[in-house]
Amino acid sequence: PHDNWISFRRRSLRVSTWMAAVEVLRQLGGDDRQMKLSGHVGFDSLPDQLVNKSVNKGFDFNILCVGETGIGKSTIMDSLFKTTFESQPVSHRLPAVSVQAHTYELQESNVGLRLTIVDTVGYGDQIDKTASVKPIVDYIEQQYENYLQEELKIKRSLTSFHDTRIHSCIYFISPTGHSLKSLDLVCMQQLDSKVNIIPVIAKADTVSKPELSDFKKRIMDELKKNGVRIYQFPTDDETVADMNDSMNSLMPFAVVGSREEVEVGGEMVRARVYPWGTVEVENENHCDFVKLREMLIRTNMEDLRETTHYDHYELFRKNRLQEMGFADSTADNRPVRLYDVIEKKRIEHMKEMEVKEEQMRQMFVDKVKQKEAELKKAEQDLHSKFDNLRKMHAEEKRKLEDKRRMLEEEINEFNRNKAAAQAAQAQAERDLTAHTGSSPVLGRKSGKKK
Q1: Given a cut of 60, is residue 13 above it in pLDDT?
Q2: Does residue 21 have a pLDDT over 70?
Q3: CA 120 to CA 125: how far, in whole Å?
Q4: Per DSSP, what are the bridge partners of residue 106?
Q5: N or C: which end of the chain has fewer CB within 10 A?
Q6: What is the pLDDT of residues 350-396, one digit of tens each?
Q7: Residue 270: burial class (beta carbons within 10 Å; 0-12, 13-18, 19+)
Q8: CA torsion angle for 41, 46, 49, 53 (degrees, to 10)?
């Protein structure tokens, strides 16, 4: 609590100093005369007013945890804030990366903190990792977009708006002891212009101290070689300049987290117990966890918030407003009126709509022509099939007529042959009767009687 109060006082004194300077410049006039007060006025209480107002309002702080499944992200968060946040075990077989945000209301002394912890579920578990970073980038930009849309409203409520912009991205590096993975470099390259990246080596108790020192050096060399910009603790404040400068040289922090408390030296501390000994989370001889908490929460939390707002968000805001057609001045350095920008966008929109309308009309005409051509072709095919069928039918009919005619001829021939055979038989019978004097039938009958 005492450290938080000191931090609030420092920020308040900066504000009060700036406002006092503005007031002095206003009172100097053309001859640069400094105005002196004849007595106590009371505006020296402005820092106290600012502190009270900030304390009553509370603060928002949002942390993005990027790292592979099972690397200890949730455990580190529990250790940082000395509590147990809700978390569920995650499978290593998820088909894609998803981003899950959980918001908690914390209270320390009389200071309220609305903390949002954003986890990257399934990060690094897929065989094809080309799409692993996109959900994270989309989430960060969406939070900036939400804030920008609130700013652009006619009736704004920024004082009560839940600011979910990411203030700090803790990137958890696997304790391989060798070098960064390609996914680590690709991810940090895409995030360094959008968030404050603080790299940490997770599960640092699995690497020996000499290996850890070399590993840190290789990580920083690779980040510098690949142009990755990580967050640097500010050194412009003389009260914390030396400490921040020394901490910058110790990055990335090698951290260990634990939810279990064990008794060490008569005190209950968070630690991890192994057969060979005990690793204390808050023992600076064992890991850099205390340094991370000191830099992230106790010393530079407000600077992280300011850097997010004045650097990363301003860059996003500038790009988005330029996309919308806004500008600070015209080509001849005249100020741009909002009405002119809106009118220009309206004209551009109307022209774009006309072009799209013409394209759609032309597309409709082309599709109608295409359909007509298809129908004509289908009609021609039907006519062709009909003609072929008619020809086939005529051919079949001709063949059937030929067969009928041939059958009729065969029947006539058969009848003629039959008639001739019958005539020949009758003639033969007549000749036989004339020769025997009786018909063959009577001859046979008389033979039987005998």
Answers
A1: no
A2: no
A3: 11
A4: 113
A5: C
A6: 999 999 999 999 999 999 999 999 999 999 999 999 999 999 999 99
A7: buried
A8: 150
CB 65 within 8 A of CB 117: yes
Residue in 270, 225, 231, 258 with CA at minimum distance from that of residue 247: 231
SS3 24: helix
**Residues making up the chain, counted from first to last:** 450
Interval 211-253: pLDDT, tens: 999 999 999 999 999 999 999 999 888 888 899 999 998 889 9
What is the C-alpha to C-alpha distance for residues 307 and 310, in angstroms, rounded to an integer?
5
Kindly tell me the number of DSSP H helices and DSSP E strands found in the chain. 12, 9
> Taking Cα atoms as reference points, which of 79, 6, 70 lies closest to residue 253?
79
What's at 409, amino acid-wise? E
Q: Can you tell me which residue has the tokens 């990363």?
A: 312
- DSSP conformation letters of 249-271: TTPSEE----S-EEEETTEEEEE
**280-284, 389-393, 414-418: segment of lowest average pLDDT:** 280-284
Q: Model's pTM, two decimal places?
A: 0.69
Burial of 101 per CB tally in 10 Å (0-12, 13-18, 19+): middle
Q: Give the torsion through C-alpha atoms of 4, 173, 62, 89, to 10 deg.
A: -110
Q: Which of 120, 121, 117 lies closest to 84, judged by CA? A: 117
Q: Which two tokens stand for residue 182?
A: 């390609």
Q: How far is CA 344 from the centre of its chain?
A: 33
Write out pLDDT tens, residues 129-140: 888 999 999 999
Q: Which two tokens stand for residue 103?
A: 């918001």
Nearest-CA neighbor of 11 among 39, 53, 40, 42?
Answer: 53
Is 68 in contact with 124 (CB distance < 8 Å)? yes
- CA-based torsion, 327, 333, 335, 340: positive or negative: negative
Write out the two tokens for 299: 């010393």
Reduced 3-state DSSP string for 383-406: HHHHHHHHHHHHHHHHHHHHHHHH
Measure the CA dihedral 362/367/369/373, to 10°.
160
| In contact, 13 and 47? CB cutoff 8 Å | yes
- SS3 state at 175: coil
Distance CA 294, CA 288 (A): 10
Give the integer Cα–Cα distance in Å for 107 and 275: 37
Q: How far is Cα 199 from Cα 260, in angstroms, rounded to an integer?
A: 24
Which of 302, 315, 391 is closest to 141 using CA atoms? Answer: 315
Structure tokens at 109: 């002394």
Spatial contact of 173 and 179, defined as CB atoms under 8 Å apart: no
